[in-house]
């Protein structure tokens, strides 16, 4: 399917021409895939799983290229359209080497890094916490068990953001996770490093790694140890996590001859967070089942939406006050055999000239504390703030805002 691993010189030569507004990137495990050239771009509805699979399969088949692959991003909302890039021009690199060479290159060419000038929360702390209190009414009326509430934050810089540099930072911040960069048709670049594998499929085998239940990482090892133990023991977080597994097993079971879901979660870390994590493994009844069909049926899981899904979906739009678009959607690739790998679009942002819009959410259940959940979204946003080299300035600007609010 893909070009064989290449030498450092070849990587450097490619990096010279790497342009995030043209090349899509998806890095998982030890591999980093980068598209060289687009054969076709297409947009397609996602409300019907069969239609989605048919559209993508025929787009791949129409290329007449055996190795063609579709890279895509599906929005959170099923009434919006997915975007795909179909290509057989993909380079496969060793992730560690690509990261190292991209970082070196971006350090050499880096002019003065853009400075963060202004922060504007599209949902500020007061909005976010009041949305949680409103959701709690639905919990007490037993209309809802869980809802994931998110915020979007606009950052404005004094000059254009160096997108290659942000991607290099994301890659070097953590070797684990799923790094992605996708040039959208809106002329923006969706970038991030997701810790959450929605689904990977190869012939009969499927694997998924849902996450739900979180705590922030700290430098002090003793405190960190206590936080990890508290997360594992937390009834609230275990419930948040169990809701996700329940829903996923209901979707996957009918498709599988075998499905293994461990009875207790383990812990998974990112550069900034700890999460409750479960690895689900299965064997499909039919190896021709298309990954997009399954991924789109799972999406959005209660790790991004809620339970019951039909109640949580419209309430999210009402409480957040705007569409999430591609944030908390899914991103990945598939080939002509219906194999591929899809992850959820979190720990991410959309870059556009001197502006970045960041996204972060948290699972809310009856036992949630509004301020703790807000702080969790702040901690999750630090992945992108660090990649933008704007974490300190963000704190200065938002602390000043908070102070101004207090004085007023
Ligand atoms: C919605 C996000 O995280 C989800 C994934 C892992 C843990 C989560 C949590 O503990 O709330 C969220 O469900 C996000 O990072 O924006």
TrEMBL record:
It comes from the Bacteria. It is an enzyme of class 5 (isomerase). Keywords: Coiled coil, Isomerase. Residues 211-238 form a coiled coil. GO terms for molecular function: isochorismate synthase activity. It holds the Pfam family Chorismate_bind. This is isochorismate synthase. It comes from Pseudoalteromonas phenolica.
């Amino acid at each position: 399917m893909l070009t064989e691993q290449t030498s450092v010189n070849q990587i450097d030569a490619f990096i010279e021409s790497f342009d995030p507004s043209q090349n899509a990137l998806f890095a998982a495990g030890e591999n980093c895939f980068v598209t060289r050239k687009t054969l076709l771009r297409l947009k397609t509805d996602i409300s019907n799983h069969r239609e989605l699979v048919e559209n993508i399969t025929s787009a791949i088949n129409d290329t007449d290229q055996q190795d063609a692959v579709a890279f895509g991003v599906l929005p959170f909302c099923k009434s919006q359209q997915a975007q795909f890039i179909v290509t057989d021009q993909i380079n496969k690199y060793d992730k560690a080497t690509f990261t190292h060479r991209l970082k070196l290159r971006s350090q050499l060419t880096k002019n003065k890094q853009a400075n963060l000038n202004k922060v504007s929360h599209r949902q500020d702390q007061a909005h976010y916490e009041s949305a949680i209190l409103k959701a709690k009414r639905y919990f007490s009326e037993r209309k809802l068990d869980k809802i994931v509430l998110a915020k979007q934050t606009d950052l404005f810089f004094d000059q254009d953001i160096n997108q290659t540099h942000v991607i290099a930072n994301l890659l070097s911040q953590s070797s684990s996770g799923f790094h992605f960069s996708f040039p959208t048709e809106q002329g923006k670049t969706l970038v991030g490093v997701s810790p959450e594998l929605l689904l990977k499929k190869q012939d009969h085998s499927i694997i998924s790694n849902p996450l739900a239940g979180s705590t922030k990482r700290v430098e002090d090892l003793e405190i960190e140890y206590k936080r990890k133990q508290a997360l594992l023991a937390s009834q609230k977080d275990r419930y948040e996590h169990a809701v996700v597994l329940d829903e996923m097993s209901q979707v996957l079971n009918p498709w599988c001859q075998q499905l293994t879901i461990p009875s207790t979660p383990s812990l998974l870390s990112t550069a900034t967070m700890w999460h409750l994590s479960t690895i689900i493994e299965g064997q499909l009844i039919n190896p021709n089942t298309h990954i997009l069909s399954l991924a789109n049926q799972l999406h959005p899981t209660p790790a991004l939406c809620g339970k019951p899904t039909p109640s949580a979906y419209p309430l999210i739009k009402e409480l957040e006050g705007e569409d999430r678009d591609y944030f908390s959607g899914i991103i990945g690739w598939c080939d002509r055999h219906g194999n591929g790998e899809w992850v959820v679009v979190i720990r991410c942002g959309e870059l556009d000239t001197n502006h970045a819009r960041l996204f972060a959410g948290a699972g809310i259940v009856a036992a949630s504390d509004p301020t703790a959940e807000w702080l969790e979204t702040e901690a999750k946003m630090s992945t992108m703030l660090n990649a933008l080299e704007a974490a300190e300035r963000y704190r200065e600007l938002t602390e000043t805002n908070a102070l101004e609010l207090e004085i007023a």
